[in-house]
C-alpha cells in the first residue's frame, strides 16, 4: 500500500487519520486523547458531554426546571461544563501530541452557545471544530473568533458551495478542511437530500472529486478533504492517496474506535459490535431531527418500525371513502377510515394496541396503553436538546414551539442516547452505527474478541488493514 504521509491539520503536521466525533459521551476526552497521542486527530463530542464532581464521578444530567425553557438552560450549562472537562482530559492524555478537535451538531439545541462556552473555557486545548447535522454557516465565525480551525461536515459539493458563498469566504484562513461524510455509509445522522435515493448509494470517489472541483474554484486546492463514512481498511482506499484529482485527503474513522480499550462504551455494546451481521445496521428516518440516520436494528429500532407500520390515514368527517367511523380517545369521538384501514385498526386493537395517537400528517398510530404513557411523558419532559424537535414540537426560538403537533412516531433522542452511553440496556436504546460495523465479526484483527488500544488500532490502520 502507498505510504500515508503526515499532512498539515489545525496548524501541525499529523497523520491524516481522524477520529470521527460521536455525540452524547461516546467520543470523550480519554478516547480522543489516546487517538491524538498516536499522532492523529482525536475528536471529543461537545453534545451533552459528561462532567464530573469533586470525586471524579460523572454528574447525572438530571433536569429540575419546570418549563422547557428552564430545562434548556440547564442543558446548555451541562454541555459547556462537559465539553470543557473532556477537552482537559483529552489534552492531558494526548501528551501534547496530535491534534484535538471538538465535534458539535448544528441542529442540536443551543449549539452556538455551547461552542462559544467550550472554546472559551478550554482555550488553547482545542485546535479545531467539526460541525455537521444541518448547514453550519456560523461555525466559521465562531471558530475564527477563538482562533481555531473549522471543519464543516457536508455530503455534497452543492452543500459546501452554499456554505462558502454565505459565510466561509469571510474566514478562509481558519478553514482547516472539509469533511465529506458519505450519507449512505456513515453512522448517526446522514445528509441525504430529497433528490437522493436512500436505497441507491453513489460512488464516494465521484462525489469527493466534485467537492474538490468546487473547492478549487474557490482557490482551496490545498485544503484537505476528510473522507468519512465506510472507511475500514485503507488498502481499499489506496487510489485516494496522492491522487491529483482529489488533492490532499485524510480518512475519518467513526466506527472502529468504538471497539478499543479507551472507548467509553459499555462491554455489552462492544460485544454487540463483535457479532453484527451485514443487515444489522439500518438506514431509517425515525429521528426527531427529520434526518435519515443509521443505527443497529435492535429491539428499540424494531419497535419504532412496528409502531410506524401500525398507521392509517384518517379524516375528522366522513369524506369519500373515508366513511367508516372509529371511536378513539377517552370520549370515544369518531374519526373516519377507509374500509380496509378500519379492518386493520380493529385487528390491532384486538391485539392490545388500543390507543390511537394522532400525528401531524393526519394519520393514527396504534400503541399499547403503557407505550402511550411512555411517549407522552417523554414529550412532557423535553429539555430542548434539538433546535427543533418533531417528537416534542420544541423550538429553541422565541415561540418555543414548531407550531406543529408533537409526533408520536419518533422518540426522545436525548434520553435514548444518554441511556445507552451510561450503561443502559443496549437492546432497548438507540445504538448508532456505521454500515461497516459488521466487519468487526469478519476482520481477523478482532479474532477471538480481541479489543485493541487506540495505539494498536492506529498501527493496524497504517498497515492498510
Give a concise summary.
The protein is α/β, with parallel strands linked by helices. It has twelve helices and 18 strands.
- Which architecture name of the largest domain does CATH use? Alpha-Beta Barrel
Q: N-to-C terminal Cα separation, in Å? A: 10 Å
Biggest sheet overview:
8 strands, parallel
Shape: globular
Strand-and-helix sequence, N→C? EEEHEHEHEHEHEEHEEHEEHEEEHEEHHH
Widest sheet: strand order? 3-11-10-8-7-6-5-4
CATH class of the largest domain: Alpha Beta
CATH level-four homologous superfamily name of the largest domain: Aldolase class I
The fraction of residues assigned to DSSP E strands is 15-25%
Mean pLDDT: 95
Unreliably modeled segments: none
Q: What's the number of helices?
A: 12
Tell me the number of strands.
18
Cα-atom Rg, whole angstroms?
23 Å
Sheet/helix structural class:
alpha/beta
Give the CATH topology of the largest domain. Answer: TIM Barrel
Number of domains: 2
The level of helicity is 25-40%
Give a written overview of the molecule.
- The protein is α/β, with parallel strands linked by helices and 465 residues long.
- The chain has two domains: 7-275 and 439-462, Aldolase class I (TIM Barrel, Alpha-Beta Barrel), CATH 3.20.20; 299-421, no CATH class.
- It has twelve helices and 18 strands.
- It has helices spanning 29-37, 68-94, 111-121, 139-145, 157-166, 204-217, 267-274, 299-309, 339-350, 369-380, 413-421, 454-462; strands at 7-9, 12-14, 17-19, 41-45, 99-105, 128-132, 149-154, 178-181, 188-190, 225-228, 249-253, 281-284, 292-296, 311-313, 324-328, 333-337, 355-358, 363-367.
- The chain has an eight-stranded parallel sheet with strand order 3-11-10-8-7-6-5-4.
- The chain is globular and about 70 Å long.
- It starts with 6 loop residues before the first strand and ends with a helix.
Amino acid at each position: 500500500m502507498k505510504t500515508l504521509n503526515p499532512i498539515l491539520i489545525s496548524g501541525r503536521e499529523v497523520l491524516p487519520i481522524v477520529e470521527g466525533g460521536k455525540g452524547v459521551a461516546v467520543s470523550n476526552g480519554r478516547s480522543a486523547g489516546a487517538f491524538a497521542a498516536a499522532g492523529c486527530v482525536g475528536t471529543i463530542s461537545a453534545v451533552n458531554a459528561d462532567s464530573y464532581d469533586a470525586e471524579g464521578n460523572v454528574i447525572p444530567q438530571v433536569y429540575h426546571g419546570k418549563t422547557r425553557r428552564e430545562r434548556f438552560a440547564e442543558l446548555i450549562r451541562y454541555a459547556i461544563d462537559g465539553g470543557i472537562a473532556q477537552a482537559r482530559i483529552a489534552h492531558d492524555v494526548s501528551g501534547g501530541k496530535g491534534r484535538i478537535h471538538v465535534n458539535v451538531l448544528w441542529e442540536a439545541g443551543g449549539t452556538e452557545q455551547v461552542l462559544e462556552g467550550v472554546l472559551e473555557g478550554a482555550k488553547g486545548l482545542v485546535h479545531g471544530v467539526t460541525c455537521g447535522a444541518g448547514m453550519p454557516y456560523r461555525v466559521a465565525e465562531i471558530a475564527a473568533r477563538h482562533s481555531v480551525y473549522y471543519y464543516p461536515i457536508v455530503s455534497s459539493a452543492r452543500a459546501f458551495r452554499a456554505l462558502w458563498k454565505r459565510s466561509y469566504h469571510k474566514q478562509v484562513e481558519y478553514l482547516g478542511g472539509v469533511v465529506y461524510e458519505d450519507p449512505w455509509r456513515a453512522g448517526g445522522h446522514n445528509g441525504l437530500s430529497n433528490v437522493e435515493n436512500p436505497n441507491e448509494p453513489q460512488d464516494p470517489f465521484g462525489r469527493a472529486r466534485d467537492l474538490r472541483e468546487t473547492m478549487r474554484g474557490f482557490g482551496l486546492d490545498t485544503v484537505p478533504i476528510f473522507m468519512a463514512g465506510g472507511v475500514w481498511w485503507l488498502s481499499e482506499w489506496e487510489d485516494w492517496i496522492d491522487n491529483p484529482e482529489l488533492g490532499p485527503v485524510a480518512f475519518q474513522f467513526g466506527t472502529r474506535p468504538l471497539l478499543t480499550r479507551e472507548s467509553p462504551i459499555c462491554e455489552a455494546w462492544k460485544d454487540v459490535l463483535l457479532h453484527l451481521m451485514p443487515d444489522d445496521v439500518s438506514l431509517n428516518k425515525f429521528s426527531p431531527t427529520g434526518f435519515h440516520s443509521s443505527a443497529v436494528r435492535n429491539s428499540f429500532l424494531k419497535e419504532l418500525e412496528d409502531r410506524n407500520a401500525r398507521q392509517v390515514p384518517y379524516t375528522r368527517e366522513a369524506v369519500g371513502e373515508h366513511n367508516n367511523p372509529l371511536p378513539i380517545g377517552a370520549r370515544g369521538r369518531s374519526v373516519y377510515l377507509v374500509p380496509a384501514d378500519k379492518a386493520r385498526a380493529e385487528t390491532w386493537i384486538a391485539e392490545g394496541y388500543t390507543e390511537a395517537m394522532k400525528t401531524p400528517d393526519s394519520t393514527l398510530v396504534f400503541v399499547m396503553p403503557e407505550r402511550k404513557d411512555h411517549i407522552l411523558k417523554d414529550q412532557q419532559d423535553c429539555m430542548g436538546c434539538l433546535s427543533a424537535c418533531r417528537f416534542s414540537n420544541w423550538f429553541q426560538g422565541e415561540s418555543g414551539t414548531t407550531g406543529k403537533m408533537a409526533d408520536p412516531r419518533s422518540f426522545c433522542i436525548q434520553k435514548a442516547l444518554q441511556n445507552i452511553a451510561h450503561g443502559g440496556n443496549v437492546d432497548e436504546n438507540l445504538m448508532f452505527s456505521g454500515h461497516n460495523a459488521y466487519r468487526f465479526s469478519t476482520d481477523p484483527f478482532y479474532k477471538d474478541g480481541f479489543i485493541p488500544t487506540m495505539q494498536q488500532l492506529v498501527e493496524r490502520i497504517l498497515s492498510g488493514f
